Amino acid sequence: MSILTVDGLSKSYDHGRVKAVTDVSFELAQGGSLGVVGESGSGKTTLSRLITGIEQPDAGRIVVAGTELEARTTRRARHERAGIMQMVFQDPYQSLDPRQTPEEAIDEIITLHGGLRGAARTARRREVLDQVDLPERARRALPRELSGGQRQRVAIARALAASPRLLLLDEATSALDVSVQAQILRLLARIRADTGVAIVFVSHDLEVVRSITEELIVMFRGEVVESGETSRVLRDPQHPYTRLLLSSVPRPGWDPDQVSRDRRTFLRQLA
Amino acid sequence: MSGSKQMVDGPVLATEELRLDVGAGETAVRILDGVGLSCAAGEIVGLVGESGSGKSMTLRTAVGLAPKGARLTGSVRVAGRELVGAGRREVLRVRREIAAMIFQDPRAHVNPYQRIGAFVADGLRRTRGWSRARAAQQVVSLLDEVGLPDPETLADRYPHELSGGMLQRVMIASALSTEPRLLLADEATTALDVTTQAEIMGLLRRLREERGLAIVFVTHDLDLAAASCDRIHVMQSGVVVEEGPALEVFERPEHPYTRKLLDAMPSRLDAEAPMPIGGAA
Known about the structure:
The complex is a heterodimer. By secondary structure, chain A is of the alpha/beta class. Chain A contains eleven helices and ten strands. In chain A, the strands form two sheets. In chain A, strands 6-7-8-3-9-10 form a six-stranded mixed beta sheet, with helices on both faces. In chain A, strands 2-1-4-5 form a four-stranded antiparallel beta sheet, covered by helices on one side. In chain A, strand 7, helix 7 and strand 8 form a beta-alpha-beta unit. In chain A, helix 4 packs across helix 5, helix 4 packs parallel to helix 6 and helix 10 runs antiparallel to helix 11. The radius of gyration of chain A is 19 Å and the shape is globular. The termini of chain A are far apart. In chain B, the strands form two sheets. A six-stranded mixed beta sheet of chain B has the order 6-7-8-3-9-10, with helices on both faces. A four-stranded antiparallel beta sheet of chain B has the order 2-1-4-5, covered by helices on one side. In chain B, strand 9 and strand 10 form a beta hairpin. Classes of the chains: A alpha/beta, B alpha/beta. Chain A: GO terms for molecular function: ATP binding. Chain A: This is ATP-binding cassette domain-containing protein.
C-alpha cells in the first residue's frame, strides 16, 4: 500500500498565467523514500506546499495513507493528518518557538498526538531526543543557544514525536555546513531504518538526493520530466534536462562553458 | 589596464602570518591565526572551509573590511601595498584601484530603486569623476563583457526585473568598472542554481584569462573549488590547515580535516554507511 499518492496535480497563479505545477503524479510506498529535485522555478516548492496542505491544488488529488486531502478540512482532519505526515523545513530557526526548549517542544507534540503524560511522556521524550542524538545539555537550552545542526535535530525530533508515517523534508539540509549536513543525512537514514518512516526529500542538490533516496522525480518548469529509481536516473539519465543538471555539478575536469552551451541548446529546443 | 597603475612583480594578494583578534580579556577571540596565502595575476585561488573557519574574514582583510575594534597583525599586501596598519586613504585607494569584491546575495548589495545602469556607473562616476554620458557608454560595454544580452535595454531596468544569475553578472560588471587586478568572490555562486553557477564560473574563468585578474574564490564547496581553482587553501578555525594545487588536495588530501570535509561532500556521501567517530553538531 502506498503512503502517498499524488495524481494529476496542477496549480497555477495569477489567474492561470503562471503554471507552477502541471499534471504531477507519483506514488510513494510505505517506508519508501522519494527525492524531488529541480532548480528554482521548477515547482518543487509549490508541490511540497500542496502536499502539506498549505496551498490547495487547482486540479488533481493527494491521498495520504488512504485518505484524500480535502480543500476544506476540519480541525480534527488536520490533527489526524499531522499524526501521519510531518514536515521539516530549511530554516529550523523560523519553525521553532524561540521561548521553548527542545524538551518543552517535544512534550507539547507528544501530549497532542499520543496523549501521554507523566513518566510515559518523559520516556517517550527521551526516546525521541535520543533518536536525533541531541546532547543532554542542548535539551534544556533555547533555540538561539543551539547550533544550526542542533536546531535541525530538534526540528526532526519534533516531527518524529508525532510518530508520523511520512516525513516531508523541504531543503532541510541546504543551510547547513557540509559536515553537519552529512551528519543529518546519516541520521535520517538511521531513523528510516529504525522507524520505517517514509520520506519525501525536496532539494535542489542532486548529490544530496542521491545519498538519501531510492526513488526520484526531476522537475522542470512545473512538470515531472523524468522519474524512476534514483541510482538509475543519475547513472543513465534519459531526459535532456536531467543530463544538463548532472553535467552542471562541478567536478574535476568540469567545463562550465560546455554546460552553458548545453543549457542554451536545451532551452532553444524547448522554445 | 590604465597606465597610472603601478605594476608589481609577484602576487597581487599576499598575506603572511595574518592574525585577527576581536574582544578583550577573557572574551577575546582569535578569528584568524597565522593565515598565509597568495594569489597571482591570472590565478584562481580557492579558500575553502565551513562557517567560522575564517575564510570570509581573510577575504575581507584584503579590502580593509575587518570588524570594528579588531586587532590585525601580520601582513596583507595588495599589489605590494601593505594594508595592516595602513591609513584609511591607503585602504580606499586599494578598493578604488586594485581590489573589488562580489558576494553571495547580490540583492543585498543593490539599491532596489536604482536602475542597473546607474548602479554600475556609480563606481566610475565616484572614482574617476566621469560624466553621466561617458560612464553610461562604459556601462554598456561592461554589461556586454559579462555576457548580459541587450545591454542598452538592460541598463534601464531595475534589480527586481532580473534573475539571481543576471544580477550576479551585474555585480561582476560593477566590480570590473574600476579595472581591478584582484577580484574577491565570497560564496558568489552559492545561492545560484547549478546551471547558473556553471555560467558564472565560466565567466570568472574567462575574465581571469582575458583581463589577467587574480581571483580569490571563497566557498564551502570542495567539489566546486577542485573543479574551478588552480590552487586551494583549506581553512579551519582561523588556520590554513592545507594548501596546494587544487587537484592534488582533492585527490590526495593530507590533513585529517580536509579528508573529513571531502568525506562529507554529498557527492561522496553514503548516508547509510556507518557514522564515523565524532560528536554531534
